[in-house]
Amino acid sequence: MIQRPPGPPTAAPRHSTTALLASTGGKRVLRPVPSAPGGRPSVTAVIPAHNYARFLGDCVASVLGQEHVDVRAIVIDDCSTDGTPYVTAALSGSDSRVEVIRHERNRGMIPSVNEGLERVETEYVVKLDADDMLAPGALGRATALLDSDPEIAFVYGRPRHFEAGVPRAGRSATRSWSIWAGREWIARRCRSPGNVISQPEVVMRTETVRRAAPVRVDLPHTSDLHMWLVLASIGDVGRVNGPVQGYYRVHPDSMQRTMHTGQLFDLRARRAAFDAAFAERAGWLDGAADLHDTARRALASESLVRACHAHDRGRAGRGADSVEGFIEFAVETWPGAAELPAWSALARRRAVGEDRIPPRVSSLAAAATRRARLEARRWWWRRTGEL
Fold first, then answer.
1. What percent of the chain has pLDDT over 90?
2. Which of the chain's ends, N or C, has fewer CB atoms near its CB within 10 Å?
3. Using CA atoms, how far apart are residues 65 and 71, in angstroms rounded to an integer?
């Protein structure tokens, strides 16, 4: 049974890498680096599945086809009503590395994940949704980095979002490794409190996952963000730079499209993840209160920026993502919201008129500027794993 430890861990001698990290502002980039581990590390993929028979075969195949590692797949069929039982029977019948757990009643994705994590016996673990896939060579590249430094809690890399078909494999060689001290990685997330990880690109050290688990059932939209924050409070964070590490499928039936939608919904969910992580780790992390304040202030500022955009689109008080909704969130999240620069920007807009829509030329120019900034951020995210 995976259990949370009763208290902060006893201080242990740090790996030499950590000392170097501290001396370089919490991050370093290493090159050249190997694209495969020296031995054959063992990795388990935990795959919750509910009515994803059409995707599950490709997902499991992407695990079993990994080179340079010994792999297992634990598939938890959460009472699917489609052809998933037939797919899992074929998979487990043809390959002994596949274990299948079948629920007689639907328990939900996160309880299924926690059940799978409890059964992991390998050194490393991947949590993989049944509609996603690993990129060829991903586990070898990630475990090479994990093997190089026992202080690293988890490794991520570049995801590729796709809609149809199995993406073609690109480059396989690792360009470099980035390694952050755990606290510094958390501090960067607090300054820009978005989730920089899609999920299938992550490989975690099982021992550390056992100290961070269980995955929070009360955070259905941001349980993964919460998990990354908790893992980073226990150890350091690594990233494989260059090749794609995971394929994240975007389709109409995904939870992100059907259940977890709306900008205010997302802001509230991210706030809940940061609040939960800092509530749990206050005694484990130096300066936790200051980091928590940084995250809440940044979320309030983001909400006010979104309020400006909603005003520009003439949505002062209409719909879920309205100006008033964003203002309310900002004030709830940060008491000093009225002192943030975005508050003044919004006040200037509202002084002209609540329902004023900017002239078309100005509106198009502002939209083009926002798109250019967004593309620049996306390019930086793909290259560095940061926002």
1. 72
2. N
3. 9
Q: What pLDDT, in 10s, does the model give residues 176-229?
A: 999 999 999 999 999 999 999 999 999 999 999 999 999 999 999 999 999 999
Q: Are strands 176-180 and 236-249 parallel, antiparallel or unpaired?
A: antiparallel
Q: What is the pLDDT of residue 7?
A: 39
The CATH class of 16-251 is alpha beta
pLDDT at 375 over 60: yes
Amino acid at 324: E
Q: From CA 121, how far away is CA 115, in angstroms rounded? A: 13
Phi-psi region for residue 58, left (φ > 0), alpha (ψ -120 to 50) or beta? alpha
Residue whose token pair is 């993989």: 128
Hunting for tokens 């930086």 — which residue is that?
Answer: 380
- The CA-atom distances, in angstroms, between 159 and each of 352, 371, 374, 385 are 43, 21, 17, 9
Is the pLDDT at 77 greater than 60? The verdict is: yes
The mean of the pLDDT values for the chain is: 87
C-alpha separations of 16 from 22, 195, 342 in Å = 10, 29, 43
Q: Which residues contact 54 (CB under 8 A, 6 or more apart)?
A: 82
The 3-state DSSP composition of the chain as helix, strand, coil percent (nearest 5) reads: 45, 15, 35
CB atoms under 10 Å from CB of 53, counted, come to 19
Give the CA diameter of the chain. 69
Return the structure tokens found at 185: 């990685």
Which tens digit of pLDDT belongs to each residue from 147-180?
A: 999 999 999 999 999 887 777 877 789 999 999 9
What is the token pair recorded at 150? 């026992």
CATH 3.90.550.10 in the chain: give the residue spans.
16-251
Mean pLDDT throughout 12-29?
55
- What whole-number distance in Å separates Cα of residue 90 and Cα of residue 326? 49
Angle at 51 between CA 222 and CA 223, to 5 degrees: 10
Give the distance from CA 149 to its chain's centroid: 22
Please check whether residue 273 is in contact with residue 267, taking contact to mean a CB–CB distance below 8 angstroms. Answer: no
